[in-house]
Design goal:
Elements (H helix, E strand, L loop, with lengths): L1 H13 L3 H72 L4 H35 L3 H28 L4 H12 L1 H79 L14 H149 L4 H127 L4
Helix pairs in contact: 2-3, 2-4, 2-5, 2-6, 3-4, 4-5, 4-6, 6-7, 7-8
């Protein structure tokens, strides 16, 4: 174990952080890229120089080609000048000779210009040559051109001389000296051109070879960079993979609830610090689980005690509820009885007050009845007198009816005597007769009724006298009853007030007992709810303990 710890410590001392590893990989990549770019740059620089040299040699080659063409043209001008001289000498007329001379003079300007152009091109070729061999060939060309150029001036001068000696001299120069110098110049130019073409090909071959070399070296450098980076990345990935595998193992154990695992960090880099942090988290979680188990056991014990206390409180609340219900029922019955007595006393007082009121009213009615009896007796006496007077009037009406009946009878007789003229009068006389007869009958009946009324009035007068005596006796009794009822009313009012106060007191007692009973019920409900919470808390504590015990410590 100590050896492993020592080995781990040694590894940790030698290890570097992932950040530094990444920086090193980036630095190595940068260095390798710089090497590849440097190789490519140097190769391209050499290729560029070769291209410049190739361009120069190409330019020299082109100028040499132009100079060779100019020299060939100059040789043609010399031959043409000799031919113009010969033609002029053989001209048949002066005019023909003058025309030939004019054509020769026209060609002289182009000839001189071509000589100057050739000199300029040769000067440019000499100034652009850099290689020793090129300078040697350029010097040979310059020397040959220096020998060849004066012959043109001589030929130009001789071409303007029309003497036969001049013509002979031109032919001699063309046959020997001019041709030899032309051939020397042409040979020097051709040799220079061949040499330059050879150098141009060498430069091109060197450029191709250099391009191939640069490409091969670049690919080799690239492959070397890939190999080096792959090796560095492989080492880094191997280290990271080991550390990640170790961390995954620890996380997997933590996921499975195994807190007994302890990781051995392979380095002090970020992954090693992660392993250390995972160990610390594991230890912290281990302590938390132990604390959770202990706390859940304490919670279970506390909930047991609280549950028992709650059950006792519930039993006490139930007893209080039962007792208060009994007392409330008894108080309710007493209150009901007192209220019944109060109601009876109130009703008795009301009855007594009603009796007193009725007695007083009866006394008043008796007094009024006595007065009315006296008034009625007087009125009935007056009614007897009036009935007597009505009897006299009826007698008078009866006498009138009898006389009317006689008159109607006489009228009927007279109408019968009158015949048809008296028929209408006879009808009226008959109706009057009937009316007189009816009136007599009615007055007879009225007389009988009045006689009967007079008899009844006498009896009424006698009865009213007796009623007056009875009402006087009732009035005396009502006065005595009113005095007794007044005393009973005072006693009943006092009793009713006392009973009402007792009823109010019992109502307050009943309300207090009902409030106590409701409080006991609320306490019982609260205790029941608290017991349910204790049960849930105990279940949650048990579940928490099971979950905590599921971890392997």
């Amino acid at each position: 174990m100590d050896n492993e710890a020592a080995s781990t410590a040694t590894k940790q001392k030698k290890s570097i952080s992932i950040k530094v590893r990444m920086i090193l990989m980036a630095a190595i990549s940068l260095v390798l890229m710089l090497v590849i770019n440097l190789v490519s740059f140097l190769g391209l620089q050499s290729i560029q120089r070769n291209q410049i040299d190739s361009g120069k040699h190409t330019k020299i080659y082109e100028r040499l080609t132009d100079v060779i063409a100019n020299v060939a043209l100059l040789e043609g001008y010399q031959e043409t000048a000799a031919r113009y001289s010969l033609m002029r000498d053989n001209a048949k007329t002066p005019a023909e000779a003058a025309a030939i001379q004019k054509e020769s003079d026209d060609d002289d300007a182009d000839w001189k210009k071509l000589v100057d152009d050739t000199q300029n091109e040769i000067d440019k070729i000499i100034s652009s040559v850099r290689t020793p061999a090129g300078k040697q060939h350029a010097q040979a060309v310059a020397q040959a051109w220096a020998d060849y150029k004066p012959t043109h001036q001589t030929m130009l001068e001789l071409s303007h001389d029309s003497s036969p000696e001049a013509t002979a001299k031109m032919n001699e120069l063309l046959a020997k000296d001019v041709w030899e110098k032309y051939e020397n110049t042409k040979k020097a130019l051709v040799d220079f051109e061949i040499m330059d073409e050879k150098l141009l090909q060498e430069v091109r071959d060197e450029s191709v070879s250099l391009s191939t070399t640069v490409m091969v070296v670049s690919w080799l450098a690239f492959l070397a960079a890939v190999v080096i980076l792959s090796l560095v990345a492989l080492v880094a990935i191997k280290h990271i993979q080991k550390s990640i595998t170790l961390i995954i193992k620890g996380v997997g154990a933590l996921r499975d609830g195994d807190l007994s695992q302890h990781l051995q960090p392979l380095s002090t880099d970020e992954l090693g610090k992660t392993a250390v942090a995972l160990n610390e988290a594991n230890e912290t979680l281990h302590s938390m689980i132990l604390s959770t188990v202990s706390s859940s056991e304490q919670i279970n014990a506390s909930t047991e005690l609280l549950n028992k206390a709650g059950e006792q409180a519930a039993a006490g609340a139930e007893e209080v509820d039962s007792a208060s219900s009994t007392v409330a029922a008894a108080a309710e019955e007493v209150a009901t009885s007192v209220q019944t007595v109060a109601a009876g006393a109130e009703e008795m007082g009301a009855s007594i007050r009603e009796i007193s009121s009725n007695a007083n009213e009866a006394a008043k009615v008796a007094q009024e009845a006595s007065k009315l009896a006296e008034q009625t007796s007087t009125t009935i006496a007056k009614l007897g007198n009036s009935s007597k007077e009505i009897g006299e009037v009826i007698k008078t009406i009866t006498s009138i009816a009898e006389q009317t009946n006689l008159l109607a009878l006489n009228a009927t007789i007279e109408a019968a005597r009158a015949g048809d003229a008296g028929k209408g009068f006879a009808v009226v006389a008959g109706e009057v007769k009937d009316l007189a007869s009816d009136t007599g009958n009615a007055t007879s009946e009225i007389g009988d009724k009045i006689t009967q009324i007079q008899a009844d009035i006498e009896e009424a007068v006698t009865a009213i006298g007796e009623i007056t005596n009875i009402i006087s006796s009732i009035n005396d009794y009502q006065t005595t009853i009113a005095a007794a009822v007044e005393e009973q009313t005072a006693t009943t009012n006092e009793m009713s007030r006392s009973v009402s106060e007792a009823a109010d007191g019992m109502s307050q007692i009943s309300g207090s007992i009902a409030s106590l009973a409701q409080t006991a019920k609320d306490s019982r409900t609260a205790v029941d709810g608290m017991n349910e919470q204790f049960v849930q808390l105990r279940a949650a504590s048990g579940s928490l303990k099971k979950q905590a015990e599921a971890f392997k410590l």
